[in-house]
Amino acid sequence: MLVWEIVAALFGVAYVILAAKQNILCWPVGMINVTITFFIVWQQHLYGYAIIQIVYFVMTINAWYIWAKKTEEGNYPVSTIAINKYLFIIPLMLLFSAGFWYVFSHTNKFFEGAEPSPYPILEAIATSVFIAGMRMQALKKLENWIMWIIGDIVYVFVFFVLKSYPLGILSLIYILVAVIGWHEWKKSQRKTHTL
Question: Residues with Cβ < 8 Å from 167, sequence gap 6 or more?
């Protein structure tokens, strides 16, 4: 399993670096990463992280399409989310977190022979945050990087406790690259506004 964790980590780092550079190749690289990661985390009973991989795979197809279409039409600039949109986003994330918490706490009811998640509330929160982050990234919203940082902080803890060190280190790297991505996208946004 360690070899696959390292392979997943390498594709994961490549994905985040490409995303930070706003390179459309981030999406196919990300699809490879999530496919491998899904099988790893499912075996570790991290169902939230496994669900994120499935959702991410589907959202990646959509994001790839959005970025390709917008690029054909011209510049697809980075933007920010209007403050009033948070009145919708935050309650929705809380609602999703509650639903995911229930599912992850009672996984054996949904999947025969599956064990409940070892950290259902942490996984529920991180899953909701990651889904929001993925959608924001597809729409080139600057705040997506904040979502990635929050979710990855949660998973650094989870992976190190479970002794899944390559994925824990990957989450630390994701945090670092997300900070860089934030700064890169912020610079890109400033350039767009000054043109």
Answer: 5, 8, 9, 37, 40, 41, 155, 159
Coil, strand, or helix at residue 79? strand
Structure tokens belonging to residue 68: 């390709």
Tell me phi and psi for residue 141, to 5 degrees.
-95, 130
pTM: 0.82
Q: Where are the domains of the chain?
A: 2-194
64-107 pLDDT, tens digit each: 988 888 766 666 788 999 999 999 999 999 999 999 899 888 87
Number of neighbouring beta carbons within 10 Å of residue 95: 11
Rounded to whole angstroms, how far apart are CA atoms 73 and 105?
Answer: 45
For 54, other C-beta atoms within 10 Å of its C-beta total 12
Output the CA angle 175-181-185, nearest 5 degrees: 150
Q: List the one residue out of 181, 118, 120, 124 whose CA is nearest residue 148.
A: 181
